[in-house]
């Protein structure tokens, strides 16, 4: 039975990425060595990381004057690296969920943190708007997509101060105007590759603002100067990221990907609205994510939730359980989830409606 | 042609590890999902990390009261995490090479660093002895094996203060008395698995000494409490580490491994001494590593070095170039290098002697 993996992350990856990575682990490009065994200073790996960097720049149309890094430690380490490098006096943060809150907590170690907007009071059901960005903040930090609640900031906002975004769960899902950002970071394990890699895209001029002594591994300048090879990176992870970037380019790049993502999300949201058993859970309609779709059973059918979970599972759909703070279901329909996967879920919802 | 990979790291891994990891990337345990796609909170990955932890404890005979962690960022991040957690007043370091020097540099950010012994003056040709360990130091930091020079501390020393060791390049090469250490860390990419994973073995009671506020990702206590799953770990990397631990156990554990390593190193060192073209490069005889064997051509044959490099390379031997600070050759003969690989190198040295 074909499995459909709706996990929030690590999550579904393109079959192309999976196959190419498995092949390279057995024998990289026919050189008779495993991808896991080659030196990160070898010409083979040098080609991998250079291509991954270039393809990321190409696909996201990264402007001149920006660097792309492939580091370790996930978004969780970025929560600290960002303020350690750039919070000299005070920073502004928008609180849109658990992950944004974690970023805020880590930043407080380095200086004053001004939470200029939050939707915590309504269980993070929306992306706050109409907030004032203090012109004297060192930067503004946002989280572009919130996996738990299924909310997403679907545009590139204007900020009078350097804009820093955690785009872990929606990077590469749509064209982005990178020039509006000073720094974008994203754990790879949703739309790019396996866990253990975090992608950082940053404006080089930002590095001049760094004043604090810090661990060398925290220093973006060191990583930029060493082109992600200050220390041994996750070679397997970066290779897999490159494969996804190749797949994405072949598929038509971010415009084509975005169109497909809108279709997938549209199909599922329409069914949630139509089906008499289901209803959107927490996300405000305008802020609904095209990556993580959260839904529950209507209060009067609440007791049927385990039954639907089982029903979907028996059809090969896994990872549909909603986060405990929201309940119900969450379908993570990242780039690699094919249209047919969403169709299968929608069909299961329809069948369930007819059978119950 | 069979390739023999003498790279210093990432380096040769057991064929078992390579094959099992490639299989799991295609389809983990037949569940129809890739190892790269499963949630780190899934029951499948939970079994992987629990087994990896237990096997590491079993193979290294880790005593009660210790934790084993699988983290990200390599030894380079440990250089900062160790002093951030444990350097409250002053720490003692032994300087045995470039990597030890890097650890020293990072520690200085957190307090007084007392370099109690160094072999820098003689290009790190030896492991210093006869140094006094200050009883008021928060800890003593050592590097057990120095890949560049091919020197190794082959015993578990006694220390009146907590002993912390970077054992990146010789962990699992011999039985170790873990009870003598407060903390051992090791980048996986020599004797354990692919790059992107660092193993930390630490005495839980040490965690009571932590006083400094720090990034959550730096906090060993957080990682211990979350059993390496505070954030998303390198799932592929940890799976591969588990395979190597299974392979090592099947092979007879550390006693058998150590015996084989002594035989391999003995064979190569004997040939270096016998062969009229070669000579040990920098390492003092008593401190010669059984993991990294460094040698050069005798001064009068110096110009033949590129020729031997090519000769070995044409026989499938790669990664033999010595580090630029030592020159000549370096054969890294980690656990996964079979006896036949060392034999092939020795045969090449003999043939070269006869042909030139």
Description:
The structure is a homodimer of 356-residue chains. Chain A is an alpha/beta fold. The first copy, chain A, has two domains: 4-11 and 252-355, Aspartate Aminotransferase, domain 1; 15-250, Aspartate Aminotransferase, domain 2, CATH 3.40.640. Helix content of chain A is 35%, strand content 17%. Chain A is built from nine helices and 14 strands. Chain A has helices at 15-26, 43-59, 74-86, 98-107, 220-225, 235-250, 253-274, 305-314, 339-355, and strands at residues 4-5, 66-71, 90-95, 112-118, 140-143, 145-146, 151-152, 163-166, 183-187, 198-203, 278-280, 292-297, 317-318, 329-332. In chain A, the strands form four sheets. A seven-stranded mixed β-sheet of chain A has the order 2-10-9-8-5-3-4, sandwiched between helices. In chain A, helix 4 (98-107) links the parallel strand 3 (90-95) and strand 4. In chain A, helix 1 crosses helix 6 and helix 3 (74-86) runs parallel beside helix 4. The longest helix of chain A is centred in the last third of the chain and has 22 residues, at 253-274. The first copy, chain A, is globular, with a radius of gyration of 21 Å. In chain A, 55% of the residues are buried. Chains A and B meet through helix 1, helix 3, helix 4 and helix 6 of A and helix 1, helix 3, helix 4 and helix 6 of B.
